[in-house]
Structures are given as C-alpha cells and as structure tokens.
Amino acid sequence: MFKLFAQLIGMHLDTQDRIRATEAALAEARRSRHELDQVTAASEQRKRLYETILSNTPDLAYVFDLEHRFIYANEVLLRMWGRSWDEAIGKTCLELGYEPWHAQLHDREIEQVKATGQPVRGQVPFSGSFGRRIYDYIFVPVFGPDGRVEAVAGTTRDVTEMKASEERLREQDRHKDEFLAVLAHELRNPLAPIRTGLSLLHRPGPPEAQDKTLHMMERQLGHMVRLVDDLMDISRISTGKVQLRTERTDVRDAVETALESCRPLIEASGHGLQVSLSPEPLCVEADRTRLSQVIGNLINNAAKYTPEGGRIELAASSRDGQVVVSVSDNGAGIAPDMLPKVFDMFSQESRNLQRAQGGLGIGLALVKQLVEMHGGTVVAHSAGLGHGSTFTLALPAAATGVELAGPQEADAAAWSGAGSGAGSAAGLRILVVDDNVDAAESLASLLEIQGHSTRTAHSGERALEVLGGFAPDCALLDIGLPGMSGYELAQRLRAGPAGGECVLVALTGWGSEGDQRRSAQAGFDHHLTKPVEIGRLDRLLQDIRSRATAG
Q1: Three-state secondary structure along 75-129?
Q2: Mean pLDDT lowest for which of 168-177, 279-288, 305-314?
Q3: CATH code where residue 119 lies
Q4: What is the mean pLDDT of residues 383-394?
Q5: How confident is the model at residue 467 (pLDDT cuts 50, 70, 90)?
Q6: Same domain for 404 and 498?
Q7: Are 69 and 90 in contact (CB under 8 A)?
Q8: Residue of 188, 232, 220 lying closest to 510 (CA atoms)
Q9: Which of 280, 298, 339, 484 is deepest in the core (most CB within 10 A)?
C-alpha cells in the first residue's frame, strides 16, 4: 500500500515537473515568437524604407539573377520601360526591348561580375519613354553565405544634362582660347604699321609722305580703339550694365553720323556707296549714339567683306509701322549653314569669317544685342558665298506728334588726331598725372603746342609736390596710379587750398558706368576714357577756359 502511494506521489511530482517544463517551454516560445515578430516588423519596416527610397530616387535601381533576368526594378525604371512589375520581372534586357547590342553588352558585364566578383562601370545611350538619354551605371556583386555571387545589383543615373553641360563648358573653353589668340593677333596687327610709321617719321622725307604716314597711323589707332570699345560694350551688355538713353530720334541723322565714321574705310577700299533715305522723317525711340553705332557696324562689316572697288547700298524707309534700315554689298557673301550663326559671339563660323578680314567676331553680336535692347530685330540674307549679303534691321516707329530732339553733335574730329591751335583753348595751367611716362609727357607736349602751360607727375605723391609751385586750372589724372590712387589724389586736391577752383578730369582706361560714378564720388568733374579723343579734350578745355573767363 505504501509502495503504491509512493508511486502515485512520484507520478504526481513528475507530472508537475512536466507541466512546469511545458509552461517554461511555452513561455520561451512566446518570447521567441514575440522577438521574431519584432524582427519581422523591423525587417518589414526596413523593407518599406528601402523601397520608398529606391522608388523615389531619380536613379534606376535593379537586380539581376544569375540567368540575367530582372528580379527587382524600382518604380523609376518601370516607368522608363513603360511596364508594370508583373510585365517586367523575370525578363531579360532583350525581352524588355533593349537593342541587341545593348542587351549583349549587359550580358557580358553580368558574366564579368559573376566571374571576378568586382564591380563594372559603364556609360550608354538608351531610348525609352523618357526619350533618348545618356546613362551612367554600375553593376556590383551580391554575395551569398558561401561567398559566391548569387545576384548582380545595379544602379543607373541619367547624365544627359551633365554631359551636355560638360560639352558646353569644353566648347566655351575652346572659344575662349581661340578668342584670346585672335585678340592677340588683332591687337598686334595695327601695332605693326604704327611701329613702321614711327620709324618712317624718324627719317627725313617729303611732307606728303609724312602726312600719308600720319593718316595711316591714325587709321590703325582708330582700329585699335574700336576693338577695345566693342569688347567693353559686349561685356557691359552681357552683365546688364548698359542703359539706353532713349529719345525721339530721326534714323536719317543716325545714318549720317554712322557714315561719317565709316567713310575713311569705304574710301580706302575704293567702294562705291549708294544711300537712299526717305524724304520724310524716320522717327524711332532710341539711344542715338547706340543706333549710330549699330548702323556703323553694319556699314563697316559690308566694307570689310567686299573686295576693293565693290558696291555698298544703304537704304532707310518706313514700312508697316516700322523703320527699316538695310545695308547690302556685293562682297564675300555668307554660306547657307552660317546664316543662323552669323550673329553668334565667337562662333566658329564668325571667327573664320572675321579672321579673313580682321576683327574679333563680336561686331555683329553687338549689333544684335543692341537692336534687341531697342525692341527691334536684325536679320541677315545672302544667296551664298561670293554673292554678297544684306543685313536688315527693323525698329518700331515712334508715335507721331512728338517733337524731335535736337540734332546730335557730330564728332568726326574724334579720329582726326590733335586739334589745331586755331580755335582751341589757350592759356590754361594744366597738371598731367600718369604713371605711364610716355603718355604723360606726350600729352603735355601736345597741350604745350596748343598754348597751355603744363606740369607732369608720375605718382600721386609727386603731384602733390608739384602743387607747391604750380596752381593748375585743370588736372588730368590717371586712376591706376602706384601707391596713392587717382581717387585718393582727387580727394586730396579737393581738400587743398585751391581745390574748389581746379577742374579735375579723370583720364583712365577704366570706363564703365560704375567707374564713372566712383570718379564723381571722389570729386572729379569729368571722366574721359583712354585713349582720349583729342578733339573732345580740346572742346572740354575750351569750355573750362570759357567758364573761367566768364567767372
């Protein structure tokens, strides 16, 4: 009996142990299941995160199996293919419509990644629903637990715009290098005859020969000035620093002003010139100086690209609410494929054309930009090489009933060199300050010939010393002086005992509107840009003399 009871107790205890063990196992299972659920939830969360990232990146993301079939493709790639997930997954590149050469290229690259375990990079054009694009891609191995490649993953980036930008930068860099080479060439061209002319003037010869040499040197100097002016104008327009001073203007007056500046080139080339202007006013709202510049550039262009003894025709008329000016020639003409690019700055075509006759390839670009700033248009026409060309600009006609502005003062004397002593200002005391010794001394000599009393200095400090025994009526100051700048010198002169009586004129190579404002702020009365037009300087000195006499 006791033995049976003991057995029953043992069985009970064993059952309790098993129950406790089972309960412990169940608790452990519950913990494991909870942990598994947490891991699964975290995994699902990461999967959603990665899928969100891959689906919203602009890059294409995908995975190939070892048989070259797509087993994953993100949304961007599916959109590029124009297919759904079910239509795309499990298919090869060839089955998805890739061109055979393209599919074979990727097949070889997948095999290379499988064999080497190393990434492969490439770049390829592709035509899809996004159009013809250029893609940069990389294939990388996906390793399994055994260290073997079990898949090949890849990403692809659209680099079409980047490649286009790189090509534009390379093209601009080439243009820059070629332009600098042309600039050096074009600046040396007029320097050569100027140097030769100086050598001729040092030798005895008949007055007629010396006059011919002087006129030649003046023409070449004028050419250099125009080159620099065109460069400055293009720079100002490109940076938005040109402001038009528009007023009601008769285009016929602008034509006359332009012809005055272009006649020397036309006559030197022996061209015939026919001008046909409307008998009625041709009024536009325009900056008269810029309009004359535009027309002058077109005339010069015709004169340069027409063989000697050619024919140039200029016409201006009113048509359909516009004032139309055309310049035609029977010269070199323009190739059909060049016509759309003839107004492009530094374009290959314009550079080739400009090299043939000299120039920087910016004259027509300047014309186009100035005309468009006036709300007008300019177009080129030509029947081809050897058949001449016609440039036609059209500007909106001004409203009727508004009084015309006074005629613009002609400045034909600007290119004629120094003014004669007759009629020029005389008797002024003038201080010339320039660190370029030759520039200062030659200008002082010219002023002395015209009857002025001058002193020169080549630094700001020396200029202040000169003032100890010389009270100038006018001071011509360079801005870029060593040590003390021209601005500081002007301020020092203004603060001196006679600073209010001396007329300060900035004579400098810095000629932007910002430079002129800074000159005025420093106390300058006038701002002239080098190389100074002697006729303009002479008129300024006459005005100073008249004011001093009247005062």
Answers
A1: HHHHHHHCCCHHHHCCCCCCCCCCCHHHHHHHHHHHHHHHHHCCCEEEEEEEEEC
A2: 168-177
A3: 3.30.450.20
A4: 93
A5: confident
A6: no
A7: yes
A8: 232
A9: 298
Phi-psi map region of 377: left, alpha, beta (phi>0 left; psi -120 to 50 alpha): beta
Residue 112, token pair as written in the block: 């290379």
Return the biggest CA–CA distance within the chain: 162
Give kind and range of the element (H or E) at residue 325: strand 322-329
Are 294 and 398 within one domain?
A: yes
pLDDT digits (tens, 9 = 90+) for 407-457: 333 333 332 333 333 334 458 999 999 988 888 888 888 888 888 999 999
| 483 and 530 co-located in one domain | yes
pTM (2 decimals)? 0.47
Asked if the structure places residue 243 within a domain, the reply is no
Q: Nearest 5 degrees, angle CA 472-CA 477-CA 482?
A: 125
- Which residue in the block uniquely carries the two structure tokens 């003894």? 309
Task: Please report whether residue 448 resides in a domain.
Answer: yes
159 touches 123 (CB < 8 A): yes
Domain boundary among 210, 237, 264: 237
* Residues 253-266: tens digit of each pLDDT: 999 988 887 888 88
Model pLDDT, residue 17 = 65
Structure-block tokens of residue 341: 């690019």
Residue 494 counted as domain residue: yes
Residue 12 in tokens: 């009970």
Instruction: Tell me, yes or no, whether 428 and 401 share the same domain.
Output: no
Shared domain check, 381 and 310: yes
Residue 154's domain spans which residues?
A: 57-158
206 & 256 share domain: no
